[in-house]
Write a structure and sequence with these properties.
This protein is α+β, with helices and mostly antiparallel strands. 54% of the residues lie in helices and 17% in strands. A hairpin with a 4-residue loop joins strand 1 and strand 2.
Length: 189
């Protein structure tokens, strides 16, 4: 009976990540595709799976092109003027813009993985990402800003750390992030 339970647990370890990943992808696909499903069904008289997703991806891509090449500057100016009247919204909006541009924009911020010595006495180290090379503007000479993502979560903490306690990691940023988010379980290639 104990051996049967061991085989079941091993099978669960093999199957669960695959099934959960497929399920999450299905939910995301179904949600995005479903945004236009009723409208497209009324136009064509039947459902075409994936058409809503293709239209939405296409529209976002076209908006990205138009926004970058034609309307970017006037739109940002108008948005800044409107947001100055609502300071709380300005904080939320600018934080979201910075967050998205940190991951996918021209100024990717999570591209410098580092190893930081947190506690010399216990030889405790933590993986993070340098987001600011210098904190002089904030009156913190000799410090750098390092973001530490949490494991099994999409949140993190930001520390100001002595530059001498930071060592660059020779690994792709995506691998470092995957390693940290997985709690160190993922193998590093």
């Amino acid at each position: 009976m104990k051996k049967l339970l061991t085989y079941f647990m091993q099978g669960l370890v093999l199957v669960a990540p695959i099934v959960i990943t497929i399920y999450i992808v299905f939910l995301i696909f179904n949600f995005i595709d479903g945004i236009l499903r009723n409208q497209l069904e009324s136009w064509f008289g039947y459902t075409i799976p994936g058409l809503g997703l293709l239209i939405i991806v296409g529209l976002i891509t076209v908006l990205g092109y138009v926004g970058q090449s034609i309307v970017s500057s006037p739109f940002k100016t108008l948005a800044d003027q409107l947001l100055k009247k609502a300071p709380l919204l300005q904080v939320i909006y600018s934080s979201l813009v910075d967050l998205f541009s940190a991951f996918v924009g021209k100024e990717k911020k999570f591209n410098r993985p580092v190893l930081v010595e947190i506690n010399k006495e216990n030889n405790l180290w933590k993986i993070g990402f340098v987001t600011q090379k210098s904190m002089v503007e904030m009156g913190m000479e000799g410090l750098v800003a390092v973001y530490f993502p949490h494991s099994y979560n999409f949140s993190g903490e930001l520390y100001m750390i002595t530059a001498a306690a930071v060592k660059p990691l020779d690994m792709p940023p995506s691998e470092a992030m995957k390693f940290v988010v997985s709690g160190g379980v993922t193998r590093v290639n």
